[in-house]
Write a structure and sequence with these properties.
Elements: H1 3-32, H2 39-73, H3 81-103, H4 108-136, H5 145-167, H6 171-181, H7 185-218
Helix pairs in contact: 1-2, 1-7, 2-3, 3-4, 4-5, 5-7, 6-7
């Protein structure tokens, strides 16, 4: 297998695991929110959900440098090799940050890392949107309108993930109280409400991922 095909295969795997694992997380949340189950069963479901949730987090980080590498090798993206290497190195640092956020969760250090990760994603959204708009205008490193559109879709997917963090923020503390102090109608409503608010955005991410996959395969002439 050539280096190009290996990169393309890895890029495809990131898409598959991102979307598939995201569906698994969403489905697992139903059992975490089910008050008819015992605390032990719900805790196990939460652990499974948390573990599966790391897969799309890692896939999100890795899919960008892989995609940029493919675009560069195909001549669709004008980027120097040193800049591409810097992107890969930055992705590895970001991957370590994502792992560390989970590793040091519920600590002061972990909270600081979580804020840093949030900032990284915000900056990346801005960079991707600017690059995408420049590509549509015939400027910047992106030479194909479909690739500019794919970068915009990816930026929206990251932004949607940030929105989910905000919308579903009450879920974790409420479930922790259920585990430590027992279930109450108020806590159960808080959990269900958080998941209900996040559900449309979760489905939006699925749509965006499918759109990005279609753009990469069809490469439509948008300009």
């Amino acid at each position: 297998m050539s280096a190009y095909l290996a990169t393309k295969f890895a890029h495809l795997l990131c898409f598959v695991y991102w979307l598939g694992a995201d569906v698994g997380v969403f489905y697992s949340s139903r059992y975490v929110c089910d008050p008819s189950l015992g605390i032990e069963a719900r805790t196990v479901a939460a652990r499974i959900m948390g573990w599966i949730d790391m897969i799309p987090r890692y896939s999100l980080v890795l899919i960008l440098p892989l995609g940029l590498t493919l675009a560069s090798q195909s001549g669709w993206l004008a980027i120097s090799e040193p800049a591409l290497q810097a992107t890969r190195f930055g992705a590895l640092l970001w991957l370590a940050l994502v792992w560390s956020v989970t590793r040091f969760a519920r600590t002061r250090f972990g909270n600081a890392l979580r804020r840093l990760d949030y900032l990284v994603r915000l900056v990346l959204v801005v960079v991707l949107v600017v690059t995408s708009l420049a590509g549509f205008a015939g400027r910047g490193p992106v030479s194909q309108p479909w690739l500019a559109a794919k970068l915009m879709v990816f930026a929206l997917a990251i932004a949607s993930g940030l929105a989910i963090r905000i919308l579903a923020a009450p879920f974790g503390p409420a479930f922790a109280r259920v585990v430590s102090s027992g279930s109450t109608p108020e806590l159960e409503r808080t959990m269900r409400s958080a998941m209900a608010r996040a559900k449309p955005v979760v489905m939006m991410i699925w749509f965006l991922l499918l759109t990005a996959a279609w753009l990469g395969l069809a490469k439509p002439a948008l300009g």
